[in-house]
Fold this protein.
Amino acid sequence: MRTRSPLTKTTCRALASLLVRALLTIINQCVDTITRLAREFELTPAARSRLIAQEDENPVDDLFRLLSTSRPPRSDDLADKVKRTEEAPGERGRSTS
């Protein structure tokens, strides 16, 4: 004779309904949290419409300004240091005479 399990179809449906409700509650809490964070960091469409863009007084880009200026000439001391560091390690300390 076959024994019936203690879980009937009605019990399974009730458990599934509880699980779905629990998941929907978690989802709704997450949506509320994300909405509050979006408001906090002004990421909502309403917050973006309140933003006022300020015009830059000097529209020239700082990088462009930096790259367009000429560099000061190198001093001889710096050129000598660079030249010495570019020498091969075996050539250091050898005299050229």
Notes: The chain is about 60% helix and 0% strand.
